[in-house]
């Protein structure tokens, strides 16, 4: 009975924090977390999960490791590893044959867990990038077994004003993958769309709307300011979960280190840490 109670509490917390973690689009990377997950226009290795079209912007191999803890509860931990590789030669700031990316992610603990293995591809053509991703998802509850599903997602990015204004959109689980026949339980289908504005080389402003077909819309806004080229400060806010976020990013050669924290008025503190390696300059 105690285990069942804990499972119910965990699932309740997941519903509060919008879409769960592994089965929904979730948060990818501490940089995105610092920007309140207004990430549909970003282009780093974590674009493999935030918006796969962003992979098309990469011009060198990248790998990243990410860890997240929600509300200081060990049962709500997430760990993920991602890698991206351009295909063919790189000319005019784009990979000739596009960029492939893979991600492995785990959320939860012994009683309840979600695992994900995903593979994506992004291609940049001029000022427009497109991408597609396939996920193999598994949800497990101790004593009740596990369920698997395959989700397909599509994304796009467009530079409306080169180097200044970028539009991004991402449709997660367009095939509405089913987890169970009981009450037609499905993986969340989520549409994200947003803009990035660079008023100067030091300032980035992101705004984004995220809509689950079975949830209210979530509005997110994030601001990044580069104090110097290698050091960035971040802040953000999201309306659906009423979370305020902040973060910092530091780059030293090929090494990128990011940290973010989020505060929920009711549930408390969440923390995010990411370490990445960029093997060639963009």
Describe the structure.
The strands form three sheets. This protein has a 14-stranded antiparallel β-barrel with strand order 1-2-5-6-7-8-9-12-13-14-15-16-17-18. Strands 3-4 form a two-stranded antiparallel sheet. It is built from three helices and 18 strands. With 282 residues, the protein is mainly beta. It has helices at 2-16, 30-34, 47-50; strands spanning 62-70, 77-86, 90-91, 94-95, 99-108, 112-125, 128-141, 145-161, 165-172, 178-180, 185-186, 190-200, 203-212, 218-228, 231-238, 243-252, 255-264, 268-278. It is globular.
Keywords for this entry:
282 residues, mainly beta, two-stranded antiparallel ribbon, 9% helix
- What distance lies between the first and last C-alpha atoms, to the nearest angstrom? 54 Å
User: What spatial order of strands do you see in the largest sheet?
Assistant: 1-2-5-6-7-8-9-12-13-14-15-16-17-18
Structural class: mainly beta
Shape: globular
Q: What is the share of helical residues?
A: under 10%
Largest sheet: number of strands, sense, barrel closure: 14 strands, antiparallel, barrel
Portion in strands: over 45%
Q: Please report the number of helical segments.
A: 3
Low-confidence stretches: 1-8, 15-22
């Amino acid at each position: 009975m105690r285990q069942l109670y804990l499972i119910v509490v965990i699932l309740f917390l997941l519903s509060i924090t919008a879409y769960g973690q592994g089965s929904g689009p979730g948060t990818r990377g501490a940089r995105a977390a610092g920007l309140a997950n207004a990430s549909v226009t970003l282009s780093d290795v974590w674009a493999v999960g935030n918006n796969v079209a962003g992979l098309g912007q990469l011009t060198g191999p990248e790998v990243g490791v990410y860890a997240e803890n929600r509300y200081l509860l060990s049962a709500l931990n997430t760990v993920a590893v991602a890698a991206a590789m351009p295909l063919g030669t790189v000319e005019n700031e784009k990979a000739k044959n596009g960029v492939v990316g893979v991600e492995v992610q785990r959320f939860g603990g012994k009683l309840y867990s979600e695992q994900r293995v995903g593979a994506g591809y992004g291609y940049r053509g001029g000022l427009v990038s497109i991408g597609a991703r396939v996920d193999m998802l598994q949800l497990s509850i101790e004593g009740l077994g596990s369920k698997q599903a395959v989700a397909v997602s599509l994304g796009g990015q467009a530079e409306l004003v080169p180097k200044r204004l970028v539009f991004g959109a991402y449709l997660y689980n367009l095939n509405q993958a089913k987890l169970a026949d009981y009450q037609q339980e499905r993986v969340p289908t989520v549409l994200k769309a947003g803009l990035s504005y660079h008023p100067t080389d030091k300032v980035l402003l992101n705004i984004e709307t995220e809509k689950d077909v079975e949830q209210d819309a979530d509005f997110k806004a994030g601001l990044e300011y580069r104090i110097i080229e290698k050091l960035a400060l971040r802040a953000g806010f999201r309306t659906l979960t009423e979370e305020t976020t902040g973060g910092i990013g530091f780059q030293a050669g090929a090494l990128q280190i990011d940290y973010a924290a989020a505060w929920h008025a009711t549930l408390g503190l969440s923390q995010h840490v990411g370490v990445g390696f960029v093997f060639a300059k963009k």
